[in-house]
UniProtKB/TrEMBL annotation:
The lineage of its organism: Bacteria, Pseudomonadati, Bacteroidota, Sphingobacteriia, Sphingobacteriales. This is Glycosyltransferase involved in cell wall bisynthesis. It comes from the Bacteria. One of its GO terms (molecular function) is glycosyltransferase activity. SUPFAM superfamilies: UDP-Glycosyltransferase/glycogen phosphorylase. InterPro entries: Glyco_trans_4-like_N. Pfam families: Glyco_transf_4. Residues 16-128 form the Glycosyltransferase subfamily 4-like N-terminal domain. It comes from Parapedobacter indicus. Keywords: Transferase.
Length: 322
């Protein structure tokens, strides 16, 4: 984004401080787009755009929706320089501009409640759900070994080694496949080295996004443990959780508030007592074959209710009402 690039350049020459101004040429560019297309509704995905779009609402008569994909004021809270610059900027944008937004969309209830308590802004919740797959049915587990899958990005802050060590403790009656994208090559290599020292964990090649759900249907348990090293991780409700559900898997998750709410309220699996490898291993090991099969059937029942189509309906109804 041009605006963000210029702001970064400004920081280099101003001791890390962010500019308070809007960019005039970007103002004109945004206005040209709106004037040219004459939209009824403008949907903003980046907080910076609120600076430019809110001033045009009255002139062009459109309604404004802000689709916040996370809690931006704490997006990189582990970086002190970021918090003193962008963190403060995003908090300031939220304070000044959220009341000009006609519809705010958040990805989970925890963030929606925080926006209400801190900025007095109501929002609807639209998580990153997967599309409903009526063609997929639960595959019954007959005997050990129980097969687990975790897919996603190899990012160090997610501490994926915890899941590797947890399953390794359980022995060969449990087998974990990791289907990872090499977002951080060094970390991916470290995980690969750790996996090579186990007998029941292995890395497998990623499949295309559209093939994830049918591919993982052959597994028994979808596994995800995420240590709450930041607020957004603490309240994370990742798309892989919904992909596990569409694949009709039993779920094992760490006690993150949003993931555990989904799992417990729909009887989809088990929540570990804590985030450490011992707690995760204990949670997995407590599941009988009968319990795994029961949770797979519960995933089959919940698949339609927790699908993207259901949330799309909420989104469209909300857009039509503003």
């Amino acid at each position: 984004m041009i605006d963000r690039a210029i702001r970064k350049l400004y920081r280099l020459f101003n001791n890390g401080q962010l500019p308070k101004f809007r960019l005039p040429f970007f103002d004109r560019f945004v206005e040209w787009i709106i004037k040219h297309h004459a939209p009824d509704v403008v949907i903003v995905h980046e907080p910076e755009f609120l600076l430019y779009v809110t001033s045009l609402k009255e002139k062009y008569g459109f309604r404004l929706a802000f689709n916040a994909h996370e809690y931006y004021p704490l997006q990189f809270e582990h970086k002190s320089v970021w918090m003193r610059t962008y963190g403060l900027m995003y908090a300031d944008i939220y304070r000044k501009y959220l009341d000009k937004v006609d519809l705010m969309i958040n990805v989970c209830e925890s963030i929606a409640k925080r926006c209400k308590s801190e900025f007095e802004k109501d929002s609807i919740v639209i998580p990153n759900a997967a599309f409903y797959r009526p063609d997929i049915q639960p595959r019954k587990v007959g005997e050990f070994p129980i097969r687990l899958i975790h897919h996603g990005a190899a990012i160090r802050s997610r501490s994926l080694e915890t899941m590797i060590n947890a399953v390794a403790k359980l022995g060969d009656s449990y087998q974990l496949d990791l289907m990872l994208v090499e977002n951080e090559k060094g970390y991916y290599d470290e995980l690969n080295d750790l996996v090579s020292k186990t007998t029941n964990v292995k890395m497998i090649a990623p499949v295309d996004f559209d093939n994830i759900v049918p591919f993982i249907n052959k597994y028994d348990i979808g596994l995800y443990s995420l240590k709450p090293s930041s607020y957004n991780q603490e309240v994370a409700l990742p798309n892989k959780l919904f992909e596990y559900i569409q694949a009709r898997l039993c779920l094992v998750v760490s006690p993150s508030v949003e993931m555990s709410n989904i799992v417990v309220s729909n009887d989809l699996g088990i929540v570990s007592r804590d985030y450490d490898e011992g707690s995760i291993a204990a949670a997995i090991g407590s599941l009988t074959i009968e319990r795994v099969n029961h949770c797979k059937e519960k995933a089959n029942i919940a698949a339609r209710k927790l699908s993207a189509e259901q949330y799309e309906g909420l989104f469209l109804n909300s857009i039509n009402s503003i």
